[in-house]
Fold:
Amino acid sequence: MAGGRERLGEFELISRLLAPLAKDEPGALGLLDDGAVLASSSDSDLVLTKDLMICGVHFLPDDPADLVARKLLRVNLSDLAAMGATPRGYLLGLCLAPDTEDEWVARFADGLIEDQGSFGVHMLGGDTTAGPGPVTLSLTAIGTVPKGHVLRRKGARPGDRIFVTGTIGDGALGLLALRGQVTDPTGVLADRYRLPQPRVSVGAALLGRATACLDVSDGLLADLGHLCDVSGVGARIEAAALPLSDAARHALANAPELLETVLTGGDDYELLFTAPPERTEEVVAVAAAKGVPVTAIGDVTSGSGVTVQGGNGEVLGFARSGYRHR
Ligand SMILES: [Mg+2]
Structure:
């Protein structure tokens, strides 16, 4: 390990803090070899996804390390869910800063251990090093789907209904609450921002039922726009149909202009998917069986673009549609 860290050496750090993350995964080979080994199967496809998180950009230096770790894992699991994949394992990249305490890494590993139990995944391997800072985290998640059945953003057809899991807007309102710009007496909104709930079991249950799917990370309007663009369709959603938490409803009652934040703010990590209208009861039922509500919010149309209708049928306009990546 390079750099100025006079703490646990790389090998000690791996053996003490990171190896426990891989101990129940035979394919990780105890982290003693140069790579992990996964059995391949002729009846499934692998789905791979990666997210990066940088201290000061995606999380703050004093955010609890266990929550940072769980969010890093969960945003990746949400991407797997969007493709209908069942998580198989993950690879971790950890670039520590000169002032990163071993205690921070230990708490980070504790967070991963907790979520590994919740989601039935294990670490397969990875790499750890020290750089000039800031702390930079990378996680590659690997999942499986039955061969040829992966859920894609492409596939929505005019006439399909548009559905969303859970509630929309809590993550974006939670970020405003953490900045003191929205009241959040119960802390529910801030919790939703800090710790997304990836809809892993629902994603797998949508295989063969949904025509297109993605997870809402950039904002409902932006992500629905992505789905429409690759499917070659348009969409019409009804503002009144949006599923809102009690906390979001309360925030909106005090400041109706926050509807724009709900629709464009991002960080929801809910699944947005389309299915033929005759499958409405079925998709609601399979999600309910996993304990997750599903709400129909509109319809796929021919043409292009996303339209939001207000309570009187009027078309609502918004200055921005969602988070833009560089
Ligand atoms: Mg995604």
In short: The chain has ten helices and eleven strands.
